[in-house]
Amino acid sequence: MTTFDEIQQAINEFDQARQWTDLHPGDVAKSIVIEAAELLEHFQRDNYKKWEEKNVPQKDMQAIAHEIGDLFSYLFKFCRETWLDPVECITNKLDKIAKKYPVDYREEGYWQIKAKHRKEGTN
Question: How do the domains of the chain map onto residue ranges?
Fold first, then answer.
């Protein structure tokens, strides 16, 4: 099993070999958004029926997997350039969401919870 640290190290070695280090975080953030848009493009004018029936062509899933790889690569690069620990980022966010949406919350209450946190400025 590959760990986050091993993935981060592989990305770092890949980038160092190509002198793709010392990137500006703003440029990496832009790349994240661009890659996310490329992922979304696979769902543009999509026939939702094929997804509901789990009848997605393999070529589509391969292309989607490539976009996911791009996204994660840029997220790891962003963490490297800003000295953030991706595991810590995820863990902290899960803790925050768990408090915001406790296990026993009702689905119909989602928008009320969301509105309350927006009003308080505590996303």
Answer: 1-84, 85-123
Average pLDDT, the chain: 86
Distance of alpha carbon 67 from alpha carbon 94, whole angstroms: 24
Task: 109-118: list long-range contacts, CB under 8 Å, 24+ apart.
Answer: none
Taking the complete model, does pTM exceed 0.70, yes or no?
yes
The gap between the terminal CA atoms of the chain, to the nearest Å, is 33
Q: Are 63 and 42 in contact (CB under 8 A)?
A: yes
Residue 100 is given by DSSP the state H
Please classify residue 58 by burial: count the beta carbons closer than 10 Å to its beta carbon, then call 0-12 exposed, 13-18 middle and 19+ buried. Answer: exposed
Q: Residue 25: which residues within 8 A CB-CB, separation 6 or more?
A: 78, 81, 82
Task: Specify the CATH number of the domain 1-84.
Answer: 1.10.287.1080
Cα 67 → chain centroid: 11
pLDDT digits (tens, 9 = 90+) for 44-102: 766 666 666 666 666 788 999 999 999 999 999 999 999 999 999 999 999 998 888 87
